[in-house]
Amino acid sequence: MNKSNRFSPEVRERAVRMVLEQRGEYPSLWAAVESIAPKIGCVPQTLLEWVKRTEIDAGARPGVTTAETARIKELEREVKELRRANEILKTASAFFAQAELDRKLKS
Questions:
Q1: Mean pLDDT for back-to-back runs of 10 residues, the chain (107 residues)
Q2: In terms of C-beta density within 10 A (0-12 exposed, 13-18 middle, 19 or more buried), how is residue 38 classed?
Q3: Which of 5, 30, 46, 105 lies most in the core, judged by the most C-beta atoms within 10 Å?
Q4: Cα separation of 6 and 9, whole Å?
Q5: Tell me, what's the pLDDT at 107?
Q6: Which phi and psi (to 5°) does residue 37 adopt?
Q7: What is the 3-state secondary structure (H, E, C) of the chain?
Q8: For residue 32, how many other CB atoms are within 10 A of its CB?
């Protein structure tokens, strides 16, 4: 199992919800995270990242949302594919242009 799938989405959601609900009982967000992380079996930094990601996706914290990140990756793949296709077309164009020149010279 890879790192990103060690915890199910349900466990992540529950852990984040626990932190957000109990945040007021602790002097800081980090204190709440440190208290709850061992209960679900993850390190505090991991839980803090989940909380931050949830806040970004909800618009409560500035940053690039998960949906925007996925869209950017999709567009980057598309650009890469289009550049590759463009290079193929340039090569083919040069090949046919050279063939046409050769044909005219033989005539």
A1: 73 96 95 96 96 95 95 98 97 90 75
A2: exposed
A3: 46
A4: 10
A5: 65
A6: -55, -45
A7: CCHHHCCCHHHHHHHHHHHHHHHHHCCCHHHHHHHHHHHHCCCHHHHHHHHHHHHHHHCCCCCCCHHHHHHHHHHHHHHHHHHHHHHHHHHHHHHHHHHHHHHHHHC
A8: 23
Cα 51 to Cα 15: distance, rounded to the nearest angstrom? 9
Task: Supply 63's token pair.
Answer: 């940053």
Residue 103: predicted pLDDT: 80
Cβ-proximal residues to 64 (8 Å cutoff; 6+ apart), any chain: 56, 72
User: What is the dihedral sign for C-alpha 54, 55, 59, 61?
Assistant: negative
Residue 84 near residue 77 (C-beta atoms within 8 A)? no
The per-residue pLDDT for 40 is 93
